[in-house]
């Protein structure tokens, strides 16, 4: 499976590193804000890794500067089977618009994103008809949460006739926040008093200042996370029964808490109980997001090959392991 | 979705109770060794619940005695969309043969089993071509383990580039073992010195005697469980990296240990870690097996409606919640 990645931040680079360790996938194209690189025989993940923060993949061997790198990738649509949208989604309509461009540009294949916000995902789901008509298969919300943990909730729900609550509480530790500049701003946008626009407008120094107020830790409650709409769509529960929050430590690679999905429900015989899915602390956000996204990209291709088109959430599908 | 259940033991009865709490499914046919009952407007789950151990569904209102109840259900093939095979699988070839009868009898729809043994599942997978040719969709190993926990392992694997180990350790507590006569014999068959034939040949008094030797508890290590072949088929790991064992208390409804799936792997950045999926102690074997099986039956119908036929393991698919 030949892959294009949009976005060369921490997630795009990690996805490239994972693909380099797989035989069933090959990375052939990467785009970022400054340009793109295309190589039909495979892009060197280590060279990509060495592109500095603030640099561009256009500086890589064979890279080209472009003010519309996404358009350039769309023009190469016959050169790959699947696309991982590892773009920061600020503003909300950005990724939905990119998807629309791919479809209208004639791409017929598999796509995944690692979207987080409910409103953005609703825009993606609105594209279902368009993608069906144009023979594309899009799996949305395929990161860690939404993604791995949302799917675990959909699985855990099977033991119950009624789901009362899904609670996702994540811990993320990153040694250097500036590897994840866009992600951190997305997280700041969830803090009281902030929104997507005000967070996006922050300078790096201002981000440092916000982080400094809490010893580098961001604790977020009741985040607007698309796990809610995805679990509702999958028939697991109502969206207001889903809560997402967590703690991000931007100064320490060790997770401040273990990422845990807890589903509470009532069994057919009237018992209230909880199933838990707990991620190992040594697994990074990059491993949990990108490994999952590539597994879902493989599944999207599987569905596409069988003529199943449209938009689905990760809570509706099992990722397909990539060897 | 109209459902037929084969087998009216603990699992068949629990499945009927669950279906009675759903609006998307209706139970229309049940078969057991003594006969069958068919009602196109729905079978009363409570009447089924009241069929005593040693009795038969043929004693229910509208029930009929038959020496080939499965054949009778196959003759009714246009009256239902999905079949849950809740039969004891002794000997190994029993369920595979039943599946073959359904297909050769002209049934075109969705089927699931809650099979446990590797050798039986391999026989099921051998039917893939036959089911594809005859437009049937069969999901196999859709109970708790294999099933819920195997799918959790396939999901957990996404964070890792290499899976080293999948360890499933279950706890089951049942207040009265004679509600699960066949299941207990299947478990005894896993003990050192026993096999499927010798376990099946035990009288109830002899089963009591075996259980009495360990205060009613059966502790099983390295069980032949199809989780191994299912995870291998799903590309998660080699079969010898999967171990299954657990403790069954036949005299206490409380679980002696919490059922846990632990997957150990190496991330793309070289970290060894473990993800865990832990079932709530209050969830019974019946809830975890039958809820999951019905979710997979719904998924099997979803696949069938989209023209995806053949045999798949539960580690390859996400169950679809039944409302």
Give a verbal description of the structure.
The structure is a homodimer of 323-residue chains. The first copy, chain A, has 323 residues and is an alpha/beta fold. Chain A folds into two domains: 2-144 and 286-316, Rossmann fold; 148-282, no CATH class. Chain A is 33% helix and 23% strand. The longest helix of chain A has 21 residues, at 285-305. The relative contact order of chain A is 0.17. Chains A and B meet through α1, α7, β12 and α12 of A and α1, α7, β12 and α12 of B. β12 of chain A pairs antiparallel with β12 (272-278) of chain B.
Short summary:
Chain A has 323 residues and is α/β, with parallel strands linked by helices.
Q: How much β-strand is present in the residues of chain A?
A: 15-25%
Q: What topology, given as strand order, has the largest sheet of chain A? A: 4-3-2-1-5-6-7-13
Shape of chain A: globular
- Multimeric state: homodimer
Rg over CA atoms of chain A: 19 Å
Structural class by secondary-structure content of chain A: alpha/beta
Which bin fits the share of residues in helices of chain A? 25-40%
Per CATH, the architecture of the largest domain in chain A is: 3-Layer(aba) Sandwich
Largest sheet of chain A: 8 strands, mixed
CATH topology of the largest domain in chain A: Rossmann fold
Order of helix and strand elements from N to C terminus of chain A: EHEEHEHEHEHHEHEHHHEHEEEHE
